[in-house]
TrEMBL record:
Pfam families: DUF4283. The gene is LOC113729082. Signal peptide: none annotated. This is DUF4283 domain-containing protein. It comes from Coffea arabica. InterPro entries: At4g02000-like, DUF4283. Residues 62-138 form the DUF4283 domain.
Length: 240
């Protein structure tokens, strides 16, 4: 008589070899679904480890997002949305509720973003709304100090009157938002005027060295209406 055979998976079978954690998170084609160190702990609590560059990549689609703050009463959202439609913006602009006093504003065009942000305070049905740049870690009680400021470079050589050199020059101060029309078509070659997104909590740069170690020149920087900001109480409108 043939020996009895136990069916697959019976109790008498030897247990299958255990898989490592790395093997479990690896897809069938051998590519890891995520790095084994992605899920970890921080101060004894579960943590998801993400590099700063990855966070910046995730935030890139929201680089033109703004936050509108109503310090007193907020009009109904339908009224707020109709207000933005009445502005005649060049592109679309989505408006959504963040909390009772804050709305998320997402213009699709950089020109609209600059227009909304540079004015800072708008009135909707007599209710003041202060607009600020949305930081990735936005919190209602955190003051964002990045604002658009018009910057002038008096006597900048003509070869720099192009977008690429101006973009690099503005990057020393912040992020270039707009080039003045008279600068773009060389109607005023005596001065360059650009709108730059700057962190006003930092000391303003007064001059920039352009060149290398052996050849170059100092370019002076002038700011139009630098916003008053108190670093002590973190409020706009006055200095410490």
């Amino acid at each position: 008589m043939a020996a009895l055979q136990q069916p697959d998976g019976a109790v008498g079978d030897a247990p299958p070899p255990s898989k490592s954690f790395a093997a479990v998170v690896t897809t069938s084609n051998g590519v890891e679904a995520f790095h084994p160190r992605t899920i970890s702990t921080y101060r004894g609590k579960p943590a998801l480890r993400i590099a700063k560059k990855e966070i910046l990549q995730l935030a890139r689609p929201f680089q033109h997002a703004l936050v509108g703050k109503f310090s007193y009463s907020r009009p109904p959202m339908e009224t707020v949305r109709k207000f933005f439609l009445s502005l005649g913006l060049k592109g679309d602009c989505a408006v959504a509720l963040l909390d009772a006093n804050h709305v998320l504003i997402r213009p699709t065009m950089k020109e609209d973003y600059a227009r909304l942000l540079i004015r800072r305070t708008w009135f909707i049905k007599s209710s003041p709304m202060t607009i600020s740049k949305r930081s990735f870690d936005f919190k209602a009680n955190k003051k964002v100090t990045i604002v658009p400021v018009w910057v002038s470079f008096l006597g900048l050589p003509l070869p720099f009157f192009r977008r690429n050199p101006l973009n690099k020059l503005a990057s020393v101060l912040g992020r270039l938002l707009k080039i003045d029309a008279a600068t773009g078509d060389l109607r005023r070659p005596s001065v360059v005027r650009v709108l730059v997104e700057i962190d006003i909590a930092r000391t303003p740069v007064k001059k920039i060295w352009i060149g290398d170690e052996k050849y170059g020149f100092w370019q002076h920087v002038e700011y139009e209406s630098w916003p008053a900001f108190c670093s002590f109480c973190e409020r706009f409108g006055h200095v410490q």
